[in-house]
Specification:
814 residues, alpha+beta, Immunoglobulin-like, 26 helices, globular, EC 3.4.11.2, Aminopeptidase N, metal-binding, protease, Peptidase_M1_dom
């Protein structure tokens, strides 16, 4: 079925014409136990401000019956996912029976069979307009209404939805009916139905009924981390409730870990996560922090996105940027992850600079003419630059005004819809400051300002030739002493133009944007840069050390610093770094630069030096696990392999053995018999993905073909962070000749990608040929980026990733 994409004009007209009182949705899942059939009956009660008018309801499933106010509708008129509704009355009841067998692609719904026990699990994920694939609805965010779900499911299954089940009825020996009470007024994209033989744990805390669910094969991993998940959930609900001025207004709060979901979804009161967040081996500090950010990001959406919802998809950026910012804020303020801002800067902020400093840059805020364009800019500018700009706004107006503005916003607009001006007006009132120009300058212009210090003059240069953005930032001054770097001053500066004079004390080094308050690239003076490279490990504050790494990667992207200098400086600092919030991010960045950015002639030595640093770091109990993982990824010498062998022999799981097998395969030493033994010994239901990683690393065409088929033919790679890792392993820099043909095939595959938007996005990013694409590929990628048969998101990613690859080519010449 070819589907029409709702335009903003159509949505505004429909919202003017109708008001939805409620949805009563009956769902039958029994056909999914051993088949692929999903059935629904949607009853919509709504009013019309212009009786006699015509509108349409969205339904992208097969409609078997439809009636409006008791009169059957002409099903022949149902096309492109729309069913016309002629002759509306002042008060209307629409009933639509629909079904679909498209339950294996992840488009709105996914049915998964666990390979270890053949148990079936089902989840729905409905953003932006996927609800119409399952039941009839007015699928736009500003037609909010209570939803009441009645779900018929196999008798062995549990069903979760947005509210606690009110009644569960046995209807026969093989099925049960789950009746859920009304939700609050919600947008169609944040309702949910999940089902399967889930393992469920419930905890009562602080007046909340907290639920945690996963598939049966992952019960040990959920149970291992349960206390931590409960603690984070309690901390988040308390923190946001206090800061936002309103407690989450529902007793039940479920978190469901489901298979093959490439991310997470903020369904009201029932968040779903890809179950790769239930780590198959005890997680590192960084893995725990990333999962904690997921938990608090989706929780922040309960207020910003669910309770108060943006009117149209042009403000989707704000929805996601706010949740990303709020999650890091909460982590730093309310959990054990007090150095989260340092971790974010060292590991993630770089991705926004990668995009915003290249030709794929776009304003944070942009027009969205129809829903199909809503996800096109669902990228690092949306999430990472967006949250960084909110971080700058808090610095600009002060935290007290920021919090006061949020409280006013939630109090005024609860259960309603808003536009950006509603939020910024609340901030302006709280701060007593007109933010109109600030908003336009930061949100409606693309690109990254570059900040530099020339004597006593702080300068900012905009990439578009216009005036730079207003910046509230700090400059830290340091002197070098025998026992490290000593900070002698922090100077607060507010830039409202291209330059400002600053009064700084005598010092050896200036750290621009200290505290990472703004979003800008920093170009240090030559003396400061030299000392940064030499003394990275000597800065006392974790955020300062993270800022130095961030500055290095910015200069790398600007073509002003060689990969060897960046990789060497970080590896040297890792000999003494012990803060777990920075160890793993720095190991990751050092590996990225040594493996992907460095010239092939220099990469082996840089990777070996990184392995040496990891070997030293592995003696620290707190950081041993990430150190061993990096050691395994870069092992070169006998000392490296000896330590790894001893660690693997004493391990209680197969994680390190898998990582060693991947590195051996990259070096041309794959052992298929040992590989089969590893698969057999690993209880992970997704162990097959680990086997694919070993094949992906192999300099062997047949092995590469098998991995390629899993990605693009069989779609058998579960969507998760492992997908990104698998892609990085596939494109080995030393295998350029073997991989050249695959790089061009990647462009062809973009035209036929299947699956939901979240899962497609993971594959597009994972399988871009980083580090091996040559000039011919970059030329072909440029042509493909103009091909409208490829979806807009993929084309945007082509431009963004190709810019970075081009900078890699240039950096290798330094």
């Amino acid at each position: 079925m070819t589907l029409s994409s709702l335009t903003q004009t159509e949505a505004a007209e429909r919202a003017r014409l109708i008001d939805v009182q409620r949805y009563d949705i009956e769902v039958d899942l029994t056909g999914l136990l051993s088949g692929d059939s999903f059935d629904s009956v949607s009853t919509i009660t709504f009013s019309c401000s212009d009786p006699g008018a015509t509108t349409f309801v969205d339904c992208a499933a097969d409609v078997s019956h439809a009636s409006l106010n008791g009169v059957p509708l002409d099903l022949a008129a149902h096309e492109n996912g729309r069913l016309p509704l002629p002759g509306l009355a002042a008060d209307n009841v629409l009933v639509v029976s629909a079904s679909t067998t498209n339950t294996a692609s992840g488009e709105g719904i996914l049915r998964t069979v666990d390979p270890t026990d053949d148990l079936v699990y089902v989840w729905t994920s409905l953003e932006p307009d996927e609800a119409r694939r399952l039941w009839a609805c007015f699928d736009q965010p500003d037609l909010k209404a209570p939803h009441r779900f009645t779900v018929r499911a196999p008798g062995t299954w549990k069903v979760t939805s947005n509210t606690a089940p009110g009644k569960i009825e046995e209807v026969d020996g093989a099925a049960r009916v789950w009746r859920f009470p009304d939700t609050p007024r919600l947008s169609t994209y944040v309702v949910v139905v999940n089902a399967g033989p889930f393992h469920e744990v419930r905890r009562q805390h602080d007046g909340y009924d907290l639920g945690f669910l996963c598939r049966q094969s992952l019960v040990p991993h959920l149970e291992r981390d349960l206390d931590e998940l409960v603690t984070l959930t309690r901390q988040g609900l308390a923190f946001f409730g206090e800061k936002f001025g309103v407690a989450f207004p529902q007793e039940r709060y479920d978190q469901v870990f489901v298979p093959n979901l490439g991310g997470a979804m903020e369904n009201w009161g029932c968040v779903t996560y890809g179950d790769s967040q239930l780590f198959r081996t005890p997680p590192t500090h960084n893995q725990r922090a990333v999962r904690a950010e997921f938990i608090l990001h989706e929780m922040a959406h309960m207020w910003f996105g669910d309770l108060v919802t943006m009117r149209w998809w042009d403000d989707l950026w704000l929805n996601e940027a706010f949740a990303s910012w709020a999650s890091n804020w909460a982590l730093a303020e309310a959990t054990e992850f007090t150095d989260q801002w340092a971790s974010f800067l060292a590991l993630y902020k770089r991705t926004a600079y990668d995009m915003d400093m290249g030709p794929a840059r776009h304003p944070i805020r942009s027009e969205v003419d129809d829903v199909s364009g809503a996800m096109a800019n669902f990228d690092a500018i949306t999430y990472v630059k967006g949250q960084s700009v909110l971080h700058q706004l808090m610095a600009y107006i002060g935290e007290d005004a920021f919090v006061e503005g949020l409280r006013s916003y939630f109090a005024e607009h609860a259960y309603g819809n808003t536009v950006l001006d509603d939020l910024m007006s609340a901030y302006s009132a709280a701060a007593g400051r007109d933010l109109t120009e600030w908003t336009q300058t930061w949100l409606d212009r693309a690109g990254t300002d570059v900040i530099s210090l020339e004597g006593a003059t702080l300068r900012a240069e905009s990439p578009d030739g216009g005036a730079p953005r207003p910046h509230r930032l700090d400059i830290a001054s340091f002197v070098v002493e025998p026992d490290g770097m000593r900070m002698v001053d922090v100077h607060a500066a507010e830039m409202l133009g291209a330059s400002v004079e600053v009064d700084l004390p005598t010092a050896d080094l200036r750290l621009l944007n200290a505290g990472d308050l703004t979003f800008a690239a920093a170009r240090p003076d030559a003396g400061s840069l030299r000392l940064m490279l030499e003394h990275l490990g000597d800065f006392a504050a974790p955020l300062d050390r993270a800022l130095v790494v961030g500055t290095m990667t910015q200069l790398l992207l600007l073509g002003e610093l060689a990969p060897r200098d960046v990789a060497s400086a970080i590896s040297a600092a890792l000999h003494t770094e012990r803060n777990p919030a920075l160890v793993e991010p720095n190991l990751s960045v050092a590996h990225l630069v040594a493996d992907r950015w460095a010239p092939p002639s220099e990469s082996p030595a840089l990777r070996s030096a990184l392995a040496d640093a990891a070997l030293v770091l592995s003696s620290d109990d707190v950081n041993r696990q990430p150190a061993l993982r990096t050691l395994a990824a870069n092992a070169t010498t006998d000392d490296h392999w000896t330590e790894l062998a001893a660690a693997a022999a004493s391990a209680t799981d197969t994680d390190l053995a898998w990582r060693m097998a991947i590195r051996r395969a990259e070096l041309g030493q794959r052992d298929d018999e040992a590989l089969a033994q590893l698969v057999a010994a690993d209880p992970d239901p997704d162990a097959g993905v680990k086997r694919l990683k070993v094949l992906a690393a192999s300099p062997d065409e047949a092995a590469k073909e098998e991995v390629w088929r899993a990605f693009f033919v069989d779609y058998s790679v579960p969507a998760s962070r492992d997908t990104l890792e698998l892609g990085a392993i596939f494109w080995r820099p030393g295998q350029g000749q073997l991989l050249a043909a695959f790089a061009h095939r990647y462009l062809d595959e973009l035209r036929t990608l299947k699956g939901g938007l979240l899962n497609q996005g993971v594959v597009i990013r994972a399988m871009y040929p980083h580090a091996v694409g040559d000039d011919a590929f970059l030329t072909a990628a440029q042509v493909a980026s103009q091909d409208e048969s490829i979806n807009q998101y993929a084309r945007n990613q082509l431009v963004a990733q190709s810019f970075v690859l081009g900078q890699v080519h240039r950096a290798r010449l330094l």
